[in-house]
Amino acid sequence: MRIIIFTAMLILTISGQAIAQTRMVSPHDWTDPDLGGAILEGVGKGENIWLRGKSRKVVRFDRRTEDRTIVATDVIDLLADGPHLWALVVLNENESVVRDLLNASLHERRVYFEGSPISLFATPNGPGVLTTTMVLLPSDQGFNRRPPAASLEPYAHVSALTGDDLFIGYNKGEWGGGLLRIHVPTGTVSFVKEASDDPCRGRLNPSCAPIVGIIRDTMNANCVLVGASLAHLTGRYGEVMRVCTDRITSVFSDPLPVLPNSIVNRPGQTWPFSGLIETHDGWIAVGRERYARARGATVTMSEMPPLKPWSGLQISDPVDGVVFVQSACCSSSDSSVRYSVLAISVEP
After folding, report:
1. Is residue 348 classed as helix, strand or coil in its secondary structure?
2. CA–CA separation, 302 vs 163, rounded Å?
């Protein structure tokens, strides 16, 4: 009898240890050995995909062989620009460099003592650089300097040069973010927002509108498309807007169905999304389980395609020139874990 009892206790103890060990492996520990704890952006060109990770490394993936190669380190931004893939590389606290990852023979452009680098941005003459204290426009000699009237915060979405304006969007989660406009010739800096007596009713109010993406408006040359979205506690909001200088118009939002006695599915709530990217024929706003795709003036909602293991990642098959990749962890409950997903245009 003692042997039976001891054996049963041993089995229970081992089972308990196994359960404890299983629970110790938290989904929040998701990471990639090269990219780190999150994939921040991706670029697709031909048979390759370039991903920039939280590790500040850029990894090139061959779509045919699944081979991966680290092609740059200390990178804080990528910019696809025609035949170029520009990388903004930090060398030290006072110096950065703009480098073409597709053509190593091109001369690098160095940035010295101009504040902390924020982002690259497209111009008709090549890549510009935005720092916390300077707008740097490309020139034959390097860069022309245009100081803004106020210092900027880092970690922002930055538009292409749009006429004489740059648009800078911040995502501070539940604390909002907002959209800034820099008039580059004069340096004036102002918030773009819709006036309202209720701070969270006016569009793009910096107290309530985290910016999740800014892209070119291919249908309006002097405008941009801006994605603002928030999913926090019981609040749900997502909207794509057209911004032309200081004029804001709604382009897309998808009302959530209203359910009786639901604090989430109530009137006024709209589908939230985490990113906005440009495609060859429009744009995509991507959430965790669905995505919205615009072609011209038509926007369609689709379910997220299945992701499958590929070169250490979870990635979809191409869907009309776009792939979806698991980019970061996560929101979770006792019954499920939901990972963030990134959309990448892979048109040649």
Report:
1. coil
2. 34
**Contact call for residues 184 and 165 (beta carbons, < 8 A):** yes
Out of 23-32, 129-138, 198-207, 254-263, the most confident range is 129-138
Distance of alpha carbon 348 from alpha carbon 284, whole angstroms: 17
Give dist(CA 302, CA 92) in Å, integer: 44
> What average pLDDT does the segment 319-348 reach?
80
- Evaluated on CA atoms 13, 16, 20, 22, the torsion sign reads positive
The beta strand positions in 132-234, using DSSP E, are 135-139, 142-146, 157-158, 165-171, 177-183, 188-192, 211-216, 224-232
Residue 282 has pLDDT above 80, yes or no: yes
Radius of gyration of the chain (CA): 23
Residue with token string 């804001």: 248
Give start and end residues of each alpha helix (H) in the chain.
2-24
Q: What is the pTM of this model?
A: 0.88
DSSP state of 28: G
- Residue 270 DSSP class: B
**Can you tell me the distance from the alpha carbon of 224 to that of 285, in angstroms, rounded to the nearest whole number?**
15
Contact 283, 227 (CB under 8 A): no
- The length of the chain is 348
CB neighbour class for 288 (10 Å; exposed up to 12, middle 13-18, buried from 19): middle
Arithmetic mean of pLDDT, 4-27: 37
What is the spatial distance between Cα 149 and Cα 129, in angstroms, rounded to a whole number?
Answer: 17
Helix (H, G, I), strand (E, B) or coil at 27: helix
Q: Quick one: DSSP state of residue 239?
A: E
The amino acid at 243: V
Report d(CA 278, CA 159) in Å as an integer.
12
Structure confidence at residue 114 (pLDDT): 84
CB 313 within 8 A of CB 327: no
Give the other-Cβ count within 10 Å of 259's Cβ. 10
| Residues forming beta bridges with residue 78, ordered by sequence position | 87
Cβ proximity of 192 and 169 under 8 Å: no
